[in-house]
Specification:
The protein contains eight helices and seven strands; from the N terminus they run βββαβαβαβαααααβ. The chain has 218 residues and is an alpha/beta fold. It has helices spanning 52-58, 71-82, 92-105, 118-125, 133-139, 150-168, 173-180, 189-200; strands at residues 5-12, 20-29, 32-42, 69-70, 87-89, 115-117, 215-216. 40% of the residues lie in helices and 18% in strands.
Amino acid sequence: MPLDFTAIDFETANSSPASACSVGLVRVRDGQVVAQTGWLIRPPQGHDVFNEWNVRIHGIHPHHVLDAATWPEQLEHLCAFVGEDVLVAHNAGFDLNVLRRACEATGLEAPPYRSLCSLAVARKTYDLDSYRLPMAAAAAGFGDFSHHDALADARACAQIIIDAARRATALDVMALAGALGVALSAPLAGERAAAAARASDATTRRPHARRRSVTMVG
């Protein structure tokens, strides 16, 4: 199996994990970045207040998302980009929780993704004073990026996994997780059932996500 995965990063409007306001996605095939995309998201109603602290971190203000797609409008596009990939994120529990809680807040079933945490991978791969994304990415040869820009963070996360796999001579994410003794999370049973239900009626559903550009890398 080749080193295939999708790196993901969310930024949130406030402390609620359902308040996704931007996402970055980076597709890796055979250890190479081949496509990347990202967009703003209008957070779900009831989770759409922008906290000053969050704004200070990522620079996204309420007026930036006024015309952005809502979570239900953009979820199908996100899933189409990810496909059946393992999702990789730095502190993956946070990003997967954003995905789940935003779905919960809008009455949707969360897609059943497996995930690998690049923070856990970095801790097993490098000897650093801090394993925050900028430091771990620099150790992986990816420095000087715009931290807290969702797409830049996803790209940095992808590089950590690519570099760690090279160092561990691991051919895929499962082999990498096994070599380092890091858990590759499995989807919850309810999410697997929901995925099966969605697949059964996929031909009857019309996509409602707005088209967005994907940058192919190569």
